[in-house]
């Protein structure tokens, strides 16, 4: 009698645990799916958006590249969000000519070639406009009343192609049950938020779309308004490594992109906005993933060296030349020794003075720790690494301060698996969390 072989199932692993088990850099995978007790262990994981429930993932072919219906265009007049949108449900403020319409989103998938940056920006503008409406407390009551009048609105928003799907037994039970109106409205808002967030992600992750810094900043603003940071680490990785489509190629072909180039570094302003979004949403995996795929990349290090290291390097190269010119001029002001000897003495003195003073300044700047709160450099870390990776340390310090106790006298008493994993992750980065001699009352 044959014995059935055990089925090996993949296990979700968070960014911190993955970094602790392997020194290779990888993209953060949120723990939302792993911590969901309602998901059966035997359920296979599909490559879908990480923040949308499985019941709401009836995506259209126009939004998901590579699907079996991917060749079918989105019907005209229907955007990615479907025929009924928030703009149509707000009876109190009907959409005008200047208001964005969801039909702009379909231009990304219906364009036979490479969508222009303006088309993608318009699509993200629709999502940003909807996100603003969804998060505006003055508009929410009117929108909730309009949604309540039409039961088809929420169901239409559940499918990206505007087609209604069959209701599951769980949804039928939920609708038939007598829940408070506040809970029903909250569920509707969650569905709408997820739909707008997913639409923005699918628009930017389309294979034909070239992610520019302006589009990335616009996308981060959309997710910041919605409070959905789960996809930000993945989008940061796509910005650096997504293959570039070739202009004029039929069918569209792609060229590999070097993620380590300085031009693929993400601006600090965008990173800080994304990090604030993850902290506000209390998503530790997303926060660590944002830091790992922005400040922790080789592209950011090279970009910082080019932006902030060229001036000191230029001063280091030109200082001997300027010192020699000054020494030559000073040698003509004396008559006690010959000109060559006087030039050599003056040149040596000028270089010694400038070099000694500059060394003191460099050491003072690179060893300053007044800006450090809970995350400091481990003893023995080279000064060059401290300067190059200061943004990464500051971001991890910000995360530690947000997840730990706010009272200074309680800091260091945190417990839990997440906190222990964060402490070990910071330790592997050459840093120390809550260094004893730097804590309050320990000096």
Descriptive report:
- The chain has helices at 15-21, 86-89, 107-110, 117-134, 140-149, 151-157, 169-176, 181-205, 213-226, 232-241, 268-280, 284-292, 298-308, 310-331, 339-366, 383-388, 390-403, 417-428; strands spanning 244-245, 254-255, 375-377, 431-433.
- A hairpin with an 8-residue loop joins strand 1 and strand 2 (254-255).
- It has 18 helices and 4 strands.
- The model is unreliable at 1-12, 23-101 and 148-174 (pLDDT under 50).
- Among the domains are: 52-209, no CATH class; 310-353, no CATH class; 375-438, no CATH class.
- The radius of gyration is 28 Å and the shape is flat.
- It is mainly α and 443 residues long.
- The chain crosses the membrane at residues 310-330, 342-365.
- Keywords: Membrane, Transmembrane, Transmembrane helix.
- Residues 104-113, 170-179 have a biased composition (Polar residues).
Spatial order of strands in the largest sheet: 1-2
Largest sheet: 2 strands, antiparallel
Strand content: under 5%
| Ends apart, CA distance between termini | 71 Å
Order of helices and strands: HHHHHHHHHHEEHHHHHEHHHE
How many E-type strands?
A: 4
How many helix segments? 18
Helix content: 40-55%
Backbone shape: flat
